[in-house]
């Protein structure tokens, strides 16, 4: 494996482990064992576990933003259905994992926001980028006449916060029902087409 591939593999495996067991419960040795690389390799690519954690956030956020963009910019579908399709796909993904993982960014926010300012700032940036993507899609829905006058920034924040809360509840309950309830109520009230 070349240097870039080794670093990428360490981050990929770390993302998987942190998704399953959290940041603090994921040791560097477990990551390296799973990646089949020597311990010295970790510190060649990352100054600290904190820097590694930030790389995990960046990798997940980048991949998730691409997924979000794929749904929210799909011109074959109306803007409100783009949002619905994205949320439905999230519900399916969480269900397929038996509601055990939740959202990596949300999980890290709960675990690390009070413990590490760099993590908190990076996580807040990620959530802000996602909120902006929802807001842009809501503006398109207004332009097309699907939605009436509303503060799209506030509604985007509501969608993101409510969805993250529903994912957390699904994880705690080991049931996707909170996500289903949020999705159904969101489209029956706030995002009910005109």
Outline the structure in words.
With 194 residues, the chain is an all-alpha fold. Helix content is 75%, strand content 0%. The chain has two domains: 1-46, Arc Repressor Mutant, subunit A (Orthogonal Bundle); 56-188, Tetracycline Repressor, domain 2 (Orthogonal Bundle), CATH 1.10.357.10.
Jot down its keywords.
Arc Repressor Mutant, subunit A, Tetracycline Repressor, domain 2, 9 helices, 2 domains, mainly alpha, 194 residues
Overall outline: elongated
Total of domains: 2
The largest sheet is: none
Strand percent estimate: under 5%
**CATH topology value of the largest domain:** Tetracycline Repressor, domain 2
The computed structural class is mainly alpha
Mean pLDDT: 95
Count of alpha/pi helices: 9
CATH class of the largest domain: Mainly Alpha
Radius of gyration of CA atoms, rounded to a whole number? 18 Å
Low-confidence stretches: none
Terminus-to-terminus distance: 55 Å
E-strand count: 0
Could you name the CATH homologous superfamily of the largest domain?
Answer: Tetracycline Repressor, domain 2
SSE ordering? HHHHHHHHH
Query: What portion of residues is helical?
Result: over 70%
């Amino acid at each position: 494996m070349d240097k870039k591939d080794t670093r990428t593999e360490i981050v990929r495996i770390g993302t998987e482990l942190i998704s399953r067991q959290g940041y603090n419960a994921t040791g560097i040795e477990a990551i390296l064992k799973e990646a089949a690389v020597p311990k010295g390799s970790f510190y060649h690519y990352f100054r600290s576990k904190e820097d590694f954690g930030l790389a995990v956030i960046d990798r997940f956020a980048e991949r998730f933003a691409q997924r979000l963009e794929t749904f929210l910019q799909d011109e074959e579908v109306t803007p409100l259905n783009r949002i619905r399709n994205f949320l439905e796909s999230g519900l399916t993904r969480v269900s397929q994992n038996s509601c055990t993982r939740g959202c990596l960014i949300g999980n890290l926010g709960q675990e690390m926001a009070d413990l590490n300012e760099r993590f908190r700032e990076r996580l807040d940036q990620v959530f802000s980028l996602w909120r902006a993507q929802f807001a842009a899609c809501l503006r398109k829905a207004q332009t097309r006449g699907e939605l009436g006058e509303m503060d799209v920034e506030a509604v985007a924040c509501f969608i993101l916060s409510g969805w993250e809360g529903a994912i957390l509840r699904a994880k705690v309950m080991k049931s996707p029902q909170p996500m289903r309830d949020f999705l159904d109520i969101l489209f029956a009230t706030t995002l009910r087409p005109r």
